[in-house]
Amino acid sequence: MVHHMFDVIVEKMREHITLSDDDIALLSTCLEVRKTRKSQLLVEPPYPANAEFFVTKGCLRHYFLDENGVEHTTAFAIEGWWMTDLQSFFTGAPSKYHVEAMEEGEVIKLRKEGREELFTKIPALNIYFRILYQNAIISQNERILNVLSTTADERYLRFIKKYPALENRVPQYLIASYLGITPEFLSKVKTRIAAKKS
Amino acid sequence: MVHHMFDVIVEKMREHITLSDDDIALLSTCLEVRKTRKSQLLVEPPYPANAEFFVTKGCLRHYFLDENGVEHTTAFAIEGWWMTDLQSFFTGAPSKYHVEAMEEGEVIKLRKEGREELFTKIPALNIYFRILYQNAIISQNERILNVLSTTADERYLRFIKKYPALENRVPQYLIASYLGITPEFLSKVKTRIAAKKS
DNA sequence: AACGTCCAATGAACTATATTAAGTAAGCAT
DNA sequence: ATGCTTACTTAATATAGTTCATTGGACGTT
C-alpha cells in the first residue's frame, strides 16, 4: 500500500466501502490537487459546476448572491468534506451559487467525467456517493427545521456546538449570514448569551 | 403491455429510465396499495420509517412535533410524489418526523427490503431513485435559501406559485406552519397582498 | 508614525413577526 | 333549532430582528 497525497480521501471512502489497490490507482488518475487562495471562486455563476471539491486544507463557503447584492451563506465545508453547487452539478444548468475558498488551502477536484468513469469501473463508489447525498438530505432537513422552529439564539448555540472549529475561524458576519441574521443582531445575540452564562 | 394499478408509478419511472414488461412484473410484487383515511399516520415516531410512499390519490404531510407540542410542517406531497421520513428510512433510526395523510386517498407502499431487492434485480432503479434524491437536495436547498433570505409575503407568493394545487386544498394554518409563521400573521399577509393587487 | 481598510461592537430608531384576546362564520353533534 | 367546536380574521400590544451611524481595534501600506 503506497503512501500518497490522496490518503485522506481514500481513508474517508474506506469508512463506507472497501477499495483495492487497483481501485486506488484508478481513482488517483481522476483526482486533481488544487491549491486555493483566499477568496478564490471554485464555482462561479453562471458557469456550470463541473466538479466536486474535497477539502484537504482550508475552508470553503457556499453562498447565494441575491438581486440586492446581499450574500446568503448556505453552507461551510472544512477538511474532510465535499462541496460544490450540487444543483448545477446534477443538472448541468448554470450555477446560481458561489463556492469560495475562504483561506489559503488545498482541495482535491473530481470532475464530472472522471466521476462517471469511476462509477462504471468501481461500482462501490456509487454507494459512497449515495451515502454522501443521503447525509446531505438529512442535514438539510435538520437545517430547515432549525430555521423554521428556533430563535436566533438557539440557532447560534447549535451552530457553535455543531461546528466548534468554525466559530473562531470564520468571520462573524459570515456566521451571521449562515444563521440568516445581520451581523449586528448576532453581536446582540452573543452578548445576551454571555450574560446568561454568568 | 397489461394495464394495471401501478400504471401511474411506472409512468413516472419511465420519465427517467426504461423498464421491460418483466421488470414491471417484478416491481409489482414489491409494491402494496394502501387506502388512507384523514389524519392517518404513515410514519409515527418513534417507530422507524420502513417504507417509502408514493401518492396516487390524496395529500401527505411531513411534520415535526416539538417539545412544546407545536407542529412544524416541513413538506407536502400530492399525487405523483414520493414521501417518507428519509432521515429514519436511510439510517434505520427511530423516526422523528410524522408523515400523515391529510385526506382520504391512496398510496403505494415500497418497503425497504423490497426496494433493496429491486435495486439488485433492476439496476436502472438505482438511477431513478438517485435522481429522486438529487431533486430532494435541490428543492431543500431552495427552501433553505427562501426561508433565510425572504420575507413572509414573498414566501407565501412563491408557495402558491409553486404549489397552486395546494392553496385551496390545505388548511391555512398548515400553510402557515410550512412557511414558518403563525396563522394570524398569514392572514395579515394575505390581506396585505390582496390590497396591493388593487 | 500616519493613513486607509476591514471587521467587531454598540445604541437608537424602525419594521417584521409573535402573542394574546376577542369576534365571526361554518360544520357537526345533541 | 341549540350549542360546541374548529378554522379564520382583526386588532392591540410585545418581542425579535433590521438599518443606520458611530466607534475602536487589528492589520497592511506608504
Written account of the structure:
The structure is a homodimer of 198-residue chains. Chain A has helices at residues 7-14, 21-30, 86-91, 112-121, 124-149, 152-162, 164-167, 172-179, 183-197; strands at residues 31-36, 41-43, 51-57, 60-65, 71-77, 82-83, 97-101, 105-111. By secondary structure, chain A is an alpha+beta fold. Chain A has a four-stranded antiparallel sheet with strand order 1-8-3-6. The first copy, chain A, has a four-stranded antiparallel sheet with strand order 2-7-4-5. Chain A is globular. The interface between A and B is medium-sized, with 26 and 25 residues. Chain A binds a DNA duplex (30 and 30 nucleotides) through residues 151-152, 171-173, 181-185, 187-188, 190-191. Chains A, B: This is CRP-like cAMP-binding protein. Chains A, B: Residues 34-119 form the Cyclic nucleotide-binding domain. Chains A, B: InterPro entries: cNMP-bd_dom, cNMP-bd_dom_sf, RmlC-like_jellyroll.
CATH class of the largest domain in chain A: Mainly Beta
User: Could you tell me which chain pair has the largest interface and how many residues each side has?
Assistant: A-B, 26 and 25 residues
**What is the overall pLDDT average of chain A?**
93
Q: Oligomeric form of this entry?
A: homodimer
Fourth CATH level, the homologous superfamily of the largest domain in chain A: Jelly Rolls
